[in-house]
Amino acid sequence: MEVVLLGTGAADGWPNPFCRCASCEDARRCGVLRGQTSALVDDELLIDCGPEAPGAASRLGRTLAGVGHLLITHAHSDHLGPQALLSRSWVPGVGRLEVVGPADALDLCRPWVGPGDPVRFTPVTAGDRIAVGAYDVRVLPAWHRVFSDGDAVLYDVTGPDGARILWATDTGPWPDDWFDAVRGAGFDAVFLEETLGDREDVSQAHLGLARFGRMLASLRLAGAVDHHTDVVAVHLGHHNPPLDRLAARLAEHGARAGLDGEVVASGPTSP
Ligand SMILES: [Zn+2]
Ligand SMILES: [Zn+2]
């Protein structure tokens, strides 16, 4: 399975364009620019599509023309920019698209679909397991919400090649009994939000470094993460320490920061 990280930043990106804090200035100096978090899997599955995702794909030399399935985690505006459906509809002979996500998120998409546009909606809730094309998708809960509890989800995706990944943004900290859903998963890669760095006071609905560490420890205890799992921090925001310090802090948890444009190869066909 090939996962292209179209973006690895929090909603405001990192650097936040309006900010001159040390972390934003450091990111600018290093030229490490992060846009809204989203991923393109095997050129056919798109996970989240905030307003920045389609342009990011183009700038990375990729196309979304092969995308037949869009998995939406939740309706926050950095994860869902439904206007992409309109741009897509302007392509002659455009293929079918299945949009999978919480019902509330799908409702925001419906006005952007024109008559005859081959878009199909598949509402899901945590606990569902569905076939999405050739992918086996388990829908997991998130301690994160938009309008009401349960309207944000995470995805556990197994590819046709057997590679299995966890897409966990936005999640917030899981209660202990939620880890049963991924017990023994032995993910090849985990993409876990680390939005807040040392500023977990900012929000209860996101992970910073401490909660990220605790969540990973619980995933390890459950056998969801093991020695071979590539643990990639995503949805990184400017509350994080500057990059070299962040790298060291994440390394303490056996994790690393994802980069925009990075290609993560997972599973049997990975090197
Ligand atoms: Zn977000
Ligand atoms: Zn969110």
Count every helix, treating DSSP H or I runs of 4 or more residues as helices.
6
Broad CATH class: Alpha Beta
Please give the domain count. Answer: 1
User: Biggest sheet: strands side by side, in what order?
Assistant: 6-5-4-3-2-1-14
Q: What hetero molecules are in the model?
A: zinc ion
- Cα(first) to Cα(last) distance is 11 Å
Q: What gross morphology would you assign?
A: globular
Low-pLDDT stretches: none
So, CATH architecture?
Answer: 4-Layer Sandwich
- Please report the total strand number as a whole number: 14
Overall mean confidence score, pLDDT: 97
Helix content: 10-25%
Structure notes:
With 271 residues, the chain is an alpha/beta fold. The protein has a single domain, classed as 4-Layer Sandwich (Metallo-beta-lactamase, Chain A), CATH 3.60.15.10. Helices cover 19% and strands 23% of the residues. The protein has six helices and 14 strands. Strand 12, helix 6 and strand 13 form a beta-alpha-beta unit. The longest helix is centred in the C-terminal third of the chain and has 13 residues. The mean pLDDT is 97. The chain binds zinc ion (2 copies). The site of one zinc ion has 4 residues, from loops.
Q: What key phrases describe this protein's structure?
A:
seven-stranded mixed β-sheet; globular; Metallo-beta-lactamase, Chain A; single chain; alpha/beta; binds zinc ion; 271 residues; 23% strand; 6 helices
